[in-house]
C-alpha cells in the first residue's frame, strides 16, 4: 500500500535575524497535507519565530515557502531584499485567512468568550447568526460553553487555551499552527486538546504544525517530527523513525532526555 502524500507547505533555506543574531538558519521543512507535524526543541531554539514565519505573521530574511493547494494563484513566498512584506501584502490575504496560529499566550480580545470565537468568522464574512451557532458548537466541544457570555479576560490559563482551540474548531482553517498548546493545561486538558487535534486531522481534514518541548506529546500526536536546535532543523522524520532510529546524535540525546550544550 502506498500513501500519496502532498506537501502543503515546503520551506527551503529560510533565514531570520534579529539584529545581529541569526535565530533561524537554512531551515528546510515539509508539511504534508492532512498530517500533524511536530516541531520539537528547547527554549529559545527558534520555534515560535519559525511558526510565525510559516503562518505569515512575520517575514523571513531569506528563503522560500511554498503553500501548495491552499489558495489558487497564491503559492510561493520568496524572501529577498526586494520582497514586499507578505505579512501585510494584500496579495497574501486569502492565504493568511486560511491559516490560524494559536498562540502560546493566546491573544484575548476585551469582550465575551463567545465574541472572541465569533470575531474570526465574522472577519471572514460569515453572518452573525451562523458565526454564533458555529462558535457555540465549538465552545461546547472544548467544554467551556457555560463561559460563553463571561468576559474573556476572566478565563483561567487552561480555559484560555481551550478558547484558542475553539477558535480553530469554529474557523476550520486549512492550516493550523499551535504554539505549545498544552503548556498551561492540566493532564485532562492536555488529553482533550490532543483528542481534538486528532479529530481535526482525521475528520475535518486539517493540517497542523504543533510546536512543543514535550517529547511524549510529540509521540502521541505527531505523524512527522522535526527537531529544531539553535535555529537549525537537525532532523525531520516520520514519528517512529525519529524516535527509534534518530540519525543525528543530538536528536538521540534530546530524545533520551539528555541536556544539549
Ligand atoms: N522580536 C524579537 N526581537 C529580538 N529577538 C527575538 C524576537 N523574537 C525572538 N527573539 C529571539 O530569538 C530567539 C528564538 O526565539 P523563539 O522563536 O521565541 O524561540 P522558542 O519559541 O523556541 O523558545 C530567542 O533567543 C529570542 O530571544
Ligand atoms: Mg516559543
TrEMBL record:
Residues 9-255 form the ABC transporter domain. It is found in: Cell membrane. The keyword Thylakoid does not apply. It is a peripheral membrane protein. GO terms for molecular function: ATP binding; ATP hydrolysis activity. Keywords: ATP-binding, Cell membrane, Membrane, Nucleotide-binding, Transport. Belongs to the ABC transporter superfamily. This is Amino acid ABC transporter ATP-binding protein.
